[in-house]
Here is the input.
Amino acid sequence: MTMAMLGLDQLADVYTMTEATGLHDTLVKSSLRCRLAHPSAAQEASVVEQPELRKMLFEPGYEIPAFAQVEVDGLRWFPVTESFRAYRGPTSQVIYRMVTVERSFVASATIMRSTPTVDSQGSPIDSYLDVGTYPCSFGRNPTRPLERENQPRIQAIAYWVFVFARAVDVRATDRIVADDRTFEVVNAEVGSADTVRRVMCMEIA
Here is the structure.
């Protein structure tokens, strides 16, 4: 079965992360034959909740590395690690592979640090000061969004993951501004074996 018969009419570049910067800028595979498709109608509810979700079909002879990013038509996507599948033909040969991907972004992000101060009446308030701008990549955390009642409707709360170089100082009380969007840090802990800093956030503006 040819790639054309499978409808693999797009090309992807695959990038892995440079540990010193936290950026996915190391090209490890170019022109991977693929096709991005919306999930099936049976998954329509998930599509509504996660509009930046796609299925990626790609050629059988290549396995995308764990924690890589793929770029298709100028847009970046994070493969969801546990969703990789290989589909086999009648003689058990792999005829194509498929993975769920989430929209990803490569950007510079500004860390805003909470600093106690007082307003004109002397009441304590939190002010956020710019403590630095750093290169990063970020994307939605590939889990079902939480739901919170927000009259007169239910609001979906989605979490995002930012990837910085390990040395970047991010704290649990910080906010992050990227692409004119503001995120509140939920978890910024880094383990002793971690080579980068992964920061869980919630978008607030």
